Amino acid sequence: MLNGEEALAGQYAADAGDYAALADPSDDGAGQRLAPVVAFMDKVAADTRNVAAPDISGLQAAGIADADIVRLCELNAFLAYQLRVIAGLRLMKEVYA
Questions:
Q1: Which SUPFAM superfamilies match (predicted)?
Q2: Alpha-carbon Rg of the chain, whole angstroms?
Q3: Considering the entire predicted model, what is its pTM?
Q4: N or C: lower Cβ tally within 10 Å for the chain?
């Protein structure tokens, strides 16, 4: 929801089961023992240029495997792409409506 896409966040939350609360930007993931993952994902999404080795080390220290860190980054990249496609389609709809 950080990007103002409440409908998309709602769709993902509907299928997230016990993790649906994570769609709320105020949820830090501590309740699901995912605080390091949520903090990392938020930083990658909102402050990409400042992600550095200590951020990766923090995930590793929390027990996140390297392959899972790569998957988290890929997921973040996909969601960013999806949000850009949605924004572009909205603009096209406005222009051609």
A1: AhpD-like
A2: 15
A3: 0.84
A4: C
Q: Give domain status of residue 12, yes or no.
A: no
Give the range of the structural domain holding residue 91, as residue numbers without chain letter: 32-96
- Could you list the mean pLDDT of each consecutive 10-residue stretch along the chain, which spans 97 residues? 79 89 89 94 93 97 97 95 93 88
In angstroms, the Cα distances linking 78 to 30, 45, 58, 63, 85 are: 24, 11, 23, 24, 10
What is the domain count for the chain?
1
Those residues with Cβ within 8 angstroms of residue 66's Cβ, 6 or more apart along the chain or in another chain? 60
- Domain assignment present for 15: no
